[in-house]
Specification:
This protein is an alpha/beta fold and 272 residues long. It contains twelve helices and six strands.
Length: 272
Amino acid sequence: MAEAQRSKGDSMMKTAIVVFDIDGVIRDVGGSYRRAIADTVEHFTGGASRPTLTDIDYLKSEGIWNNDWEASQELVYRYFEAQGQARTGISLNYQHLIDFFQSRYRGPDPEQWTGYIGSEPLLCTPNYFKNLTENQMLWGFFSGAMRDEALYVLQGKLNLGIPVLRAMEDVPGKPDPTGLFEVIAELETEENQQTPVLYVGDTVADLYTVTKAKQQQPERFWIGVGVLPPHIQQADLERRQTYQQNLEKAGATIVLNQLEELTPAKIKDLIS
């Protein structure tokens, strides 16, 4: 489908380019990535600390912990620092931490993905992207997930063909906007240069990415779209409001409850 959207529209002016984060936007990772973070922190603190979803949200609200391996490591360090230990004296093998995290997220056998990844609910349907294409909108993905884990949902569950994607292995992590720029460059044609761009994400790092993109390419029209992840939608009003305010402070023009509220009509309103 991604190849089709490019070949069909190469000589036709598009109304917008929409780039999506994946985790918390396309799929619900509250019971997978975030559960794996909690398991990892618990394991490497000897069972002394298991962060809640609120704890993880608080860390990610700092805007620099988009990588979940690094977030897990940071939470381990902060636990031991709170016990009076200096960070430099904490023995923590980062590769061992990654291996443990992956054994929970993918499963103990890297060839048989039996871990938490298999139970991630989808937050949109293939028709959502078909509708964007039919309304002369280009789309792609910029995610902090590993490429094969991103394709697991984009190809394996949503059947999106060969989507335009930048993942963990491809570019620096968010909030560095390099991946966003590369997705746009791959989608863009001569007729569609300077087309308005929307970046859709659920974390502060995602919205900081848009802010940095605006700073580096001020000649383009940028819109940051925040989406409340499922575990926040289920939280109390005060927590939902705080989460939304954090996204807005980071650069969100609008914050939605779910991705499919970002209809072609809504996109046209935002760029008009």
